[in-house]
Description:
The structure holds three protein chains of three kinds. Chain A has helices spanning 47-60, 72-89, 128-133, 165-168, 173-176, 188-197, 225-238, 241-247, 277-280, 284-296, 299-304, 311-324, and strands at 23-24, 29-30, 35-36, 65-66, 94-99, 102-107, 112-117, 139-146, 149-156, 204-214, 248-259, 266-276. Chain A is 35% helix and 23% strand. Chain A contains twelve helices and twelve strands. In chain A, the strands form three sheets. In chain A, strands 1-10-11-12-8-9-4 form a seven-stranded antiparallel beta sheet. In chain A, strands 5-6-7 form a three-stranded antiparallel beta sheet. By secondary structure, chain B is α/β, with parallel strands linked by helices. Chain B has a five-stranded mixed beta sheet with strand order 6-5-9-8-7, with helices on one face. In chain B, helix 3 (67-78) packs across helix 4. Chain C is of the alpha/beta class. The radius of gyration of chain C is 22 Å and the shape is globular. Chain C is built from seven helices and 18 strands. In chain C, a hairpin with a 4-residue loop joins strand 3 and strand 4. Chain C starts with a strand and ends with a strand. In chain C, the strands form four sheets. Chain C has a six-stranded antiparallel beta sheet with strand order 4-3-6-1-2-5. The longest helix of chain C is centred in the middle third of the chain and has 14 residues, at 120-133. Chain A binds chain C through residues 19-24, 68, 70-74, 98, 101, 118-119, 144-148, 153, 191-192, 194-195, 198, 200-203, 205, 259, 261-265, and chain C through 1-2, 33-36, 39, 61-63, 97-100, 103, 105-107, 132-133, 212, 223, 263-271, 286-287.
Amino acid sequence: MTELSDFPFPLTKDAYAYTANLEPGGVRRETAAGAWGETITRAGPDYEQLIEERARILKQDPGRLIRDPALAPAGWDTLRYLMRRLAADYPADFEYAEAAGRARWVNHRLGTSADFTLGDPATLPCGPLEFIGRQVVEDLVLLDEREGQLYVDAGLVTFASGWSFPFVAGSTFQEIHGPVPRANAAGVFTRAEAFLLRLPPGAAYRRVNWAFQPYRVLDHSMDAAGDWMPPAARFLGEATDDDIARHVYLRVELQHLIRLETSAAVLFLIDTRFLALADLARVPAWAARLCAVLADLPDDVAEYKGLGELRPRVIDCLRRRRAAD
Amino acid sequence: MTNAVHGDGRLRWTSVPRWTAAELPAAASYLACCFGDAGQQRAGDLLATADPGVPVRTAVFAAGWDAATAAEVGRLVGDCYAGVRIILAGPESAVMSAAAVARGLGAAGEELVLVATELPGGGAPAKGEHDTGRDGTVGHGTGEHGTGEHVAGRAGRRVFCAACRQSFPAEAALGDVVTCPGCAAGLIVDYRFSRPHAAYFGWPAGLDLHR
Amino acid sequence: MSASLPLAVAQVTPLAADVRQLTLVARDGGPLPSHPPGSHLGLRWRREPDRVNSYSLTGDGDAPAAYTVSVLRVPGGSGGSAWVHQLRAGDPVDAVAPRSTFAPAAKARRHLLVAGGIGITPLLSHARWHRRWGGDFTLYYASRPERAPHLEELRSLCGPRLRAYPGRDALWADLGPALRRQPLGTQLYVCGPAGLIEAVTAAAKSAHWAGSRLRCEAFGVSADGPRVPFRASLVLTGRQVAVAAGETLLEALERDGVAVPSQCRGGVCGECRTPVSAGPVDHRDLVLSAQEKASGQWIMPCVSRAAGDELELSL
């Protein structure tokens, strides 16, 4: 069962346009079903399940974690940032205290704790990025500024959608965003990068990405295509209208971009959320807005967002559900 | 996603290498790594325009790419001083592989002079057009070379196997199926190119059942 | 984007005849924001008109208990450094949260730091960072013998990695040849008087260092342009909105109850695009094209301002 009240419904207008859609993070946003956005990290009811799924994926494919020794300070910066945020946003679940370089971390949700020295890898069971990455639900990517550009150098990504982190690691921000239709012609990524390069230490911004997929598959990466593509292809061929309602999901990525305070690296956090069409249709305002946006979406954008042939059936499904209410 | 060959519009904004004409930049010293005869020829042509007295080191390799070549290129780059410009000349796939080694060792894009003697799609760059310089990155591409069709055609490329996470050489057009020598998987050659791996992404073939 | 920070002077330490070190703590005794090495702190030394001078933070920046800045008294300047030099322990200081424009290059193989006079301050912060994280660095520090702030501290911090010179000629005797024998992947940093920055930039260029290998910090430069108060007239409603130096046009409009859609509040998303009917615009956004900016018909009020005293908006 999906929790609607804190779902970050991504559409704020009836028409779709490619913009940088960056806004300050940590700001509460009201929706037709509730509100979201006050926290930068998330540890909801699905926390334990997501942590376990991440651990399973990493065990099968350790290559989803990429370290860079030159970015060790950024790794510690990330660990401290996320531990502080979790402890501040969920004080009953997490504790973090630090004095003179020594830190204490308690994770009540997982029943673990650690006493360690910041910057000293010998005091943790693994590197800082991996240590904190295994305790948050968000994918983590670290970007370093050099040659006037941002390079994607390190991170832990188990829930990618439509890309492969091991394939692109070491590339620039512009190179990675190449295959996005229309956005590049609109200069969206050039502006977004310029904006990120000017972020002052400690600043946190966010944006929301969305797409559709059959089945609630978290690891939708190019690396795992062998697992999710055959069922998805069969679905396209065989789905009934009821299947569409129950098994087509709106996949939303709530992304945060943070200029870390001591290392000056940019931390990219991606929180992946799902909403089945049937659940989405229970919120009339959302169903109406989505219909309006999907009706006008250009074909190449629709395909990029996982719709393609599904589009008319998705619109149909939403309209039928609305008529039924 | 697997339908890799789209119209010109789609390929324009991808990470596929694009080539622009450029001149030999001034430098405190040059390192030229030449892959094959054509590479050696083109590097020589460029270096003939260098200021006299500027030290030049030249290394010649076969036109392909292998671990020994990668190690030697790495050794040569590691010995360079600040102020160097590194010329990499040869077929696109060797040049991009050497560039990945150089960047991995800390060379900046500005310090590399990339010269492709053969491009994917067949043929050499037009006479008089050096096809040297930094390959145009997405969004900043200047002086587009050829059409989408041209870049997509059959030629020597390196393909990245998602399962092995290794790259291997293959004669393929974008959208062709090739076989990974490591794990025998059939892979469809995608238009997505990674500069650090200097290879095109290979999707497991046979997954896209519906289309 | 420039958060204000209420601080207080904890201590004033003379470092040389005309150089003072200020130790600043949070006025409420709370923690201070961490910052990357090479960051600068803005100190507001006058209101009406709003004047802020930026000084490089000399500390490590990692969970600091206090901020330290070393300030050279500039005779005949606009008055900022004189104001700093009259501060005493206990005085309140309004600061702007640290901004980072001169950080170390994380992936450089080696760091070559060049400091002239008071330009040592951000590079002291860099040296602390490299000592902590094991970076390979050499610091060339040229200063007048009677004014070499932090020299002793640097000797014990850097050991043989510090090369100190009593003047420019001695510096260049070593630095000139050194620029021609650094390994590929060395990053060069320079901070000091304009003449030194120009000279190092020229020497690096003539030694064909790639442009991206050089990071400079010039003094007296703040990250954003000056913010001067102006008036905005709303042509369609006849309202007048006064925009103070400390706020953006968007903030002033919102304060006066004028609804303008906005999203990023940082000049990149285009949401707050507002039509202008008169008045030259000081464009500071990343959205408008060069033609749009030149036409003077649009403004992004979240970051841009009037170039003169007044703007007329079609609101």
